[in-house]
């Protein structure tokens, strides 16, 4: 395993709980959106802003935690900043139309999805379960493209699509978090066994 890839894998395994929190936040956002299908656009805007900000903050946390160990930490930082930017833009313009919100969400989903796929490709030989990160990224890209291609769908359909995406994305991140945690334990045990020899 190259030093660069080992460092990135170490960052993810040490901070597996951040992935877990991101996944749980996505699931909570999706479930709340399902439970409030008749919510006004203002409530949806606030829910999306909160989700994007929380997701972005956790992404920035991962990047900063690994900046000394990984020269490509900026990719994770960019991932987090895109989320924070989408959340802030949404909060600054709470009276936006459904179409504008749709495009905010689509651009954010595509940008974060591409970054997740790139990270999964870099880690494909280093950690088990990297395909979950790639799948989450692919889900984000597909979701964003669908929103752009069909902007005229009804508000309720958009709500259900957003909620479904958030829950699927969240579940994949939770699974990845537990895989990263398990990988970290195996790595620690292997290092301990090597030190005893």
Q: Span between N and C termini?
A: 21 Å
Low-confidence stretches: none
Multimerization state: single chain
State the order of secondary-structure elements, H for helix, E for strand. Answer: HHHHHHH
What top-tier CATH class fits best?
Mainly Alpha
Largest sheet composition:
none
The global form is elongated
Helix content: over 70%
For this structure, the CATH topology is: Serine Threonine Protein Phosphatase 5, Tetratricopeptide repeat
Q: State the helix count.
A: 7
CATH 2nd-level architecture: Alpha Horseshoe
Chain-averaged pLDDT: 78
Q: Whole-number radius of gyration?
A: 18 Å
How many E-type strands? 0
How many structural domains? 1
Secondary-structure content class? mainly alpha
Strand content: under 5%
Characterize the structure shown.
There is one protein chain. This protein is 84% helix and 0% strand. The chain is mainly alpha-helical. It has helices spanning 3-14, 16-35, 41-65, 73-92, 98-123, 130-149, 155-196. The protein is elongated. The two termini are 21 Å apart. The model has no long low-confidence stretch (mean pLDDT 78). It has seven helices and no strands. Helix 1 crosses helix 7. It has one domain (3-196): Serine Threonine Protein Phosphatase 5, Tetratricopeptide repeat (Alpha Horseshoe).
Q: What is the gist of this entry?
A:
With about 200 residues, the chain is an all-alpha fold. Helices cover about 85% and strands about 0% of the residues. The protein has a single domain, classed as Serine Threonine Protein Phosphatase 5, Tetratricopeptide repeat (Alpha Horseshoe), CATH 1.25.40.
């Amino acid at each position: 395993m190259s030093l660069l890839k080992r460092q990135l894998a170490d960052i993810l395994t040490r901070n597996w709980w951040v992935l877990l929190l991101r996944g749980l936040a996505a699931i909570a956002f999706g479930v709340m959106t399902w439970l409030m299908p008749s919510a006004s656009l203002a409530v949806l805007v606030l829910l999306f802003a909160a989700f994007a900000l929380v997701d972005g903050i956790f992404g920035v946390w991962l990047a900063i935690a690994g900046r000394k160990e990984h020269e490509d930490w900026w990719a994770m930082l960019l991932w987090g900043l895109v989320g924070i930017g989408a959340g802030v833009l949404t909060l600054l313009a709470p009276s936006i139309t459904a179409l504008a919100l749709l495009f905010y969400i689509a651009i954010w989903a595509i940008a974060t999805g591409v970054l997740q796929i790139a990270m999964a490709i870099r880690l494909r030989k280093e950690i088990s379960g990297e395909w979950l990160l790639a799948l989450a990224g692919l889900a984000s890209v597909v979701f964003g493209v669908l929103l752009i291609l069909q902007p005229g769908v009804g508000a309720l359909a958009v709500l259900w699509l957003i909620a479904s995406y958030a829950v699927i994305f969240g579940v994949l991140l939770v699974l990845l978090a537990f895989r990263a945690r398990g990988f970290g334990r195996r790595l620690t045990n292997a290092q301990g066994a090597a030190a005893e020899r």
